[in-house]
Structure formats: structure tokens, C-alpha cells
Amino acid sequence: MVREFANSLNIAIEEYFTQVKLAMLNHSSDFVYDLKTNGSSASFKWIKKEGTIKILHGSVELSKDEPATSKDALIEALLFKNENLERELDDVKKINHNLNNELTTSRDELKKIANSQSELEKVLYAKFVQLLNTKKERIRVLEGCLSKYE
């Protein structure tokens, strides 16, 4: 069918495909579109206008498609899916809430640990300074005793 239209228009198949794409995607003013229905079938045609001449550029026969499921069944399935998604969303919200609580607790604990570390460092430095001063004093005393014996 495609070859027949391309041959009747005296153009290559690739060029025909390009023109059909332009006709379908751009709704060009160069084309007239015609849809005729007949019960459960229809015919769609696109006709190219070249001046006062109209040339049938392509056509497609269409048939009515019956849905595989009824609207009620579709609505019921969508409502069921919606309920499942709402439950899943609630579960995810609970998990998120728990994670936020854990994060807050962890931050508080980290602050306490950082404060404890800082206080411990201050105590250790103070004791170190005391120990260092004691050792310096002991060294002076020993040096004084040593100088007496010399």
C-alpha cells in the first residue's frame, strides 16, 4: 500500500515517509484531513493540496477497539492500586519519621560526646601542665643538689 501511494505520487518511499510524517505531526496547511465513520469502522485520509489540485496522499482503514475490561473493573483495579499505594506511602512516612528521630538522637549524642571530649582534653591538659611543672621543679632541686656536690 505504501509503495502504491509513493509510486502514484512519483516519489521515493523515503520521501513519501518524510511527507507523511510532516502531514501527521505538523498538521500542515498543505493537507486536508478527512475522517469518515461507518458504524464500528472508519476511514482516515490525508489529501495534499497543490494549488487548486487535490491529490490523495494516503489513507488508513480504522476499526473500533473494544476495551478488554469494563470501566467498572478498571475503576475497581485503580482504587485497589490507590489503596495499596496509600498504605505504602504511610509505611514510608513512618520509616522517614523513625529515621528523623534517629538522626536527631544521633546528633544530640554526638554533641554530648564532643563536649565530653573537650572537657576531658581540658582536664588532661591541666594535669599534664601540673605534672610538667612538678617534674621541672624536681629537676631544679636535683640540679641544685648536684651543684652542691661539685
UniProtKB/TrEMBL annotation:
One of its GO terms (biological process) is double-strand break repair via nonhomologous end joining. Residues 75-116 form a coiled coil. Residues 2-63 form the XRCC4 N-terminal domain. Residues 67-142 form the XRCC4 coiled-coil domain. InterPro entries: DNA_repair_prot_XRCC4, XRCC4-like_C, XRCC4_CC, XRCC4_N. GO terms for cellular component: DNA ligase IV complex; DNA-dependent protein kinase-DNA ligase 4 complex. It holds the Pfam family XRCC4_CC. One of its GO terms (molecular function) is DNA binding. This is DNA repair protein XRCC4. It comes from Eumeta variegata.
